[in-house]
Amino acid sequence: MTDILAVLPLHLVVFACLVTLLGGFVKGAVGFAMPLIMISGMGILINPQLVVAGIILPILVSNGWQIARSGLGPARAAVVEHWRYLLIVCVMILISAQFLTVISADAMFVILGVPVVALCVVQLLGWKPVIGPRWRRPFEWGSGLAAGTLGGLAGTWGPPTVLYLLALETPRDRQMAVQGVIYGLGSVMLFLGHLQSGVLNGHTWQLSALLVLPAMLGMLAGFRLGDRFDQALFRKVTLIVLIVAGVNLVRRGLIG
Hints:
With 256 residues, the chain is mainly alpha-helical. The chain has 13 helices and no strands. Helix 2 packs parallel to helix 12.
């Protein structure tokens, strides 16, 4: 605990745990948004590099849990169908992670905030791109490039991945399994990439490890309580709150 307090004061450690608990609950209840909540929530008070370091292990463990719940059969099918996308995402996460330490804090706030706002607006509007068969391969590589670059820098590759799956008209009942594999393998690459970059180091890994517990407790509560309320309304409210938080991150990056 002493090493964690060398990175963050106690009140910010408690704040990070509460944000992570909320993110885990939403992920368990409606199946998305834990990284977005952790990024936009913790980014209000915590240095963006520490935010990225903090989310690494909770993302890794929660995505492993999601894959296990979906089953290995759907996971294997997802790898076979989407291997090109997975390949470019994983490679770009490893590469772009190495640039995080040279980006200014102001730029990081923008990098963290823009994907949060973009994904939430897209989901609120219900918009999805339409891609013809001849454009599928270029779109696959382009989306993977964007997703992997964002993943290494901001710790979330959700926005391009969601658009990618929508554009391919992936059936709703398969999206969770596919996203679990994409996020799961990507989180392994994020872990490895930031071990190399130094963002995950002797001090910050302990903060990230500490946040695994509230993430798992939140997910467990979300699994058990998620069917007791109006999920559509809860999802909409979550997206609106995330947009406000994301806009605030962008504001901090642009005007301080």
